Amino acid sequence: MKASVIGATGFAGAELLRLLDGHPEAEISYITSESSTGENIATMYPHLKGRIEKELTSMEDLNKIADASDVIFIALPHGHAMKIAKTLKNKDVKIIDLGGDYRFKDVKVFEEWYKTTHEDPDTKAVYGLTELYRDQVKGTNLVANPGCYTTCSILSLVPLIKAGLIETKGIVVDAKSGTTGAGRGLKLGSLYCSVNENFHAYGVANHRHTPEIEQVYSEFAGEPVIIQFTPHLLPVDRGILATCYAQLKPGVTEQQVADAFTNMYKDEYFIRLRGLGACPEIKDVRASNYVDIGWSLDKRTGKIIVMSVLDNLVKGAAGQAVQNMNVMFGLEENTGLKHMPIYP
Amino acid sequence: MKASVIGATGFAGAELLRLLDGHPEAEISYITSESSTGENIATMYPHLKGRIEKELTSMEDLNKIADASDVIFIALPHGHAMKIAKTLKNKDVKIIDLGGDYRFKDVKVFEEWYKTTHEDPDTKAVYGLTELYRDQVKGTNLVANPGCYTTCSILSLVPLIKAGLIETKGIVVDAKSGTTGAGRGLKLGSLYCSVNENFHAYGVANHRHTPEIEQVYSEFAGEPVIIQFTPHLLPVDRGILATCYAQLKPGVTEQQVADAFTNMYKDEYFIRLRGLGACPEIKDVRASNYVDIGWSLDKRTGKIIVMSVLDNLVKGAAGQAVQNMNVMFGLEENTGLKHMPIYP
Amino acid sequence: MKASVIGATGFAGAELLRLLDGHPEAEISYITSESSTGENIATMYPHLKGRIEKELTSMEDLNKIADASDVIFIALPHGHAMKIAKTLKNKDVKIIDLGGDYRFKDVKVFEEWYKTTHEDPDTKAVYGLTELYRDQVKGTNLVANPGCYTTCSILSLVPLIKAGLIETKGIVVDAKSGTTGAGRGLKLGSLYCSVNENFHAYGVANHRHTPEIEQVYSEFAGEPVIIQFTPHLLPVDRGILATCYAQLKPGVTEQQVADAFTNMYKDEYFIRLRGLGACPEIKDVRASNYVDIGWSLDKRTGKIIVMSVLDNLVKGAAGQAVQNMNVMFGLEENTGLKHMPIYP
Amino acid sequence: MKASVIGATGFAGAELLRLLDGHPEAEISYITSESSTGENIATMYPHLKGRIEKELTSMEDLNKIADASDVIFIALPHGHAMKIAKTLKNKDVKIIDLGGDYRFKDVKVFEEWYKTTHEDPDTKAVYGLTELYRDQVKGTNLVANPGCYTTCSILSLVPLIKAGLIETKGIVVDAKSGTTGAGRGLKLGSLYCSVNENFHAYGVANHRHTPEIEQVYSEFAGEPVIIQFTPHLLPVDRGILATCYAQLKPGVTEQQVADAFTNMYKDEYFIRLRGLGACPEIKDVRASNYVDIGWSLDKRTGKIIVMSVLDNLVKGAAGQAVQNMNVMFGLEENTGLKHMPIYP
User: Fold this and answer.
1) What is the ipTM of this complex?
2) How far is B337 from chain D (nearest CA, A)?
3) How does residue D104 score in pLDDT terms, banded at 50, 70 and 90?
4) Separation in Å, CA of C11 to nearest CA in chain A
5) Is the whole-model pTM more than 0.95?
6) A281 and B CB contact within 8 Å
7) Domains in chain D: ranges and CATH
8) Residue A58 in contact with residue A27, Cβ under 8 Å?
9) What is the torsional sign of CA A320, A322, A323, A324?
């Protein structure tokens, strides 16, 4: 299985290389970068030395890349994948896009939140939150891999929404992400001295992962769901914690809550239910494809607080992308993804 | 003005020493520690070398300490201050307690949340959130200095509650604190390797600062307010960020919100209104007594999100204690507290 | 291949579990802890959940453990392994000790630096710096796995010592280690607030890894070598950087230096020569078994500066232990150890 | 006393603002930035809000700035100060340059290490390591403020060199600096994800602070001294630790070493001798103007190891600049500089 990575020098791209290198069925074909074309990836990322000593090429000749690939991962900012997928529409190659271009059923939602005209509005992709859409992933050639915050937020509350245990009005998702989530671009806010010993919210009331979360919540609720989503920047490399607040419907018991989670996730390799009273920590899943979920019920307020953690570069990006690849090619879903979390 | 510090070797105690050393009107009298009696504080805390080379004494002979002090700061875990204040009831010495013993109007609330019988239930202290209770602080001999999360949470929403702009039902306070908040005790969860590159919630639905916040919210609301409060542990030394969510009453405008904050805080030296759209960062106030407040309104959800930051050891503990001391002794409120934040 | 871990709850023990879980030929038999006997290791270390849900037993019945094991790893502080190995002397089980007990050819050196009487002075182990003593490791039942600083320091200079390119007098090794090196014990100096944003030397002129480094340097020099070794504590979880200074012999060229490294390491899977002018970073090898080595020559001073990095829990402890296990059992040396470094 | 800061938006510039704001005799006149002319400094650095709400101007009209200033601090990269000082040669204004332009007695050394032609080669400045050159600082109008590594390294060994207790051949200075030392420029190596959990050397055998250290060592030795200097990048905001290695002359005693330090520094407010066996920590002096020094003697090797720490932005830059200003204007040397270290 030949895999190419378009945009291999970002953090998600480099993480894909790590995972593909250790994948028993995958072989890396092309890796591309427009800004570092011709450079050896291991010069830029010395941790790859001796493992992936490949030259970065341009993505200009997409057909050449497609011909040499069974699957292409696109790890670029939004706006690029729509061009690439459009170009390769008739090629026999599977595409997994880690960006936002194909995540929305309604193109207008994309255009409104991303302030961009969609250039390939009629192509429909499968939303690759594997645990929820596995069957559709299996049969598609184009997967829209979910966002990092999104994966965490969706997996936290969908069991309760599906089981009808919580009010879908008034949901608050207060999320915190490690700094790899901000990418490798040179921004003042990404400097060590800006992030270290610091913490703050950003994108309040307007972050692009909001409509993505709402899309799935709404689907499982069977009615439109609007949420309050607030991301924050953590002084750590990797990891997301989503603290999700929802009002329990009257009379809902601890057991019903536990059952909802168990029913939905009991056979999932990558979801570890930590249960009532547990406060999962981001380090519990670092560098792995796991999602750990814990929850608490507050009798005084009638609210449930669900907390879940994942590694934003693995289950929140490259890991889930490989998971989707495995599904698309009929492999065991956890092939090449059984890494233990790195602790401490 | 002679000041003694009971419990000088904890982080709040050491911060009090830093602030008192730089205070033009204060002189440090006794400093105590039961576990390190006889030791020079500068041996334990070399940053104090050349500045505070004082011997730690026992707090056993409280009367001797009181006789040599105009003011006594108590920086001990809850349960101690009630004994000390009771003993010194008839002494002519002002007491500022940084713990929880005297923070509640209703002793039963204390007993329920702290699982302890109050030994001095009839003594009433003034709740020392200086900006709100300045006049009462002026006339008292016993100040209950507020908790760190509490100060941050209260200052964020009280202007809106007082002005009647938000629903008092359904408030969520999602707060994040630096690790000095966990104290200097030897706990596995406080080890570098436990906290670094990590993040998690704790005390979900049962943290002791909850009823303290509710007490003040209720007072300003004129009715009982119940909130959802969730603290988290940040991998930084100092700083708290509280992200507070409330439903705006129908028709409330941006201007009304801005006015509510301005009306309440426009003359406050230590409160810096950062305004609509601002996301204050904990490093903006580090090692200072400032509280920075920003907010956003979400038209889609009708919610307001108020974010405020402070240094948990300064405005959240020792700084506010000194601010109260200044008020009690008729000094300018910012005497000895004009430190600029340390950035980066 | 059944492997047991004596002392499984320390950081090195937990890292052994991670590596053994991913090892295709190994199966974990007993895991022990005297302080947490009866507990599930995954309760203590939730990152292991779903992977290693084993009960911790006591190491009291060593014979039972030995009977159920092909290999026993001892991950305890010094002083324990000598008792265990002595007890199991006649058992058919291979032992790999991660502590200091068997690292010295001359028991008196151990006794002098560790201030302890050796209880098993006549047993000789093989010093398990695999790259240097592979052949002896192959044939032994008792491996003394080297210290973390030691591995890094030895691999840096031995090629130059062996080739006779540097003066063996006046060598300075200035080393810096992540905080996992200090262990999981509850010490004030290991608290987050003690380590974070901090840095300092310790064990100056008396650290126990000094004689261990000197032993190997001396062996390759053919004469006694005395060095200056200074360890420092880094505010990171994992990683060691050793900056090694030595005087080049007159006339030594860049090419001779490069050849010395290449001759010695060209076939080593785990040693990556980064070459002249490279400054390897600890993150380049994090969570992997790699050692990266770079160097610079200073014409003004006639000195060579060799810098090498490794992960103190992997190549500096558990990884090298598994590497030795592989050699002892005739497996490919990198079996179960091909993890890519985690970056960032 | 009116003070202007040329280059106010870098880390050293911003730190100057913090110190000048708290200085009882100073008033900030102009603050300049070419890239942010017209902007309010408090917009860029919100920690200054309510304190320094000044507009950044261009440095184009130097005469206007000089006319409105008693002292001008230049906090720019090298190459600028030589132009500014040349232009203002006949103005009645004191200049303190925080860059490298005027630090060398021999202009050729500057030109060789900085690869730049000096445009003002005949102007002689005083080297502002205040503790060593106080008397000359008093009488000058142009101070070349020393580098951060330099201050730390020089103060560590000069007492021993002056007293003739160490060999001046073979000195090694292994130094480690916090990331503010790398400045606020947008470089890949300064990103949070590049620095966090990482550590590496840089500028090996060619860092520009080398000749600056050698210049002072040579002066006190009375003969040319060549050293090995290696800087490293620490994952902390602030702080430098220099670990200095030198060979003691035969027969030198612990007492002689202690006397050498005491004789030189006993009356220095900002130098705290921590003594034999002490390992000073960078956090012991954070955000203060202190330098803490400890040392160890190694009988086995005959070497002395001197370790000293300072805050690179304070004693290593802005603090020492203000200290020099105080001396130049006849104020108490510690005026406005008595800040306690911030711990933790």
Assistant:
1) 0.98
2) 11
3) very high
4) 8
5) yes
6) yes
7) 2-124 (3.40.50.720), 149-312 (3.30.360.10)
8) no
9) positive
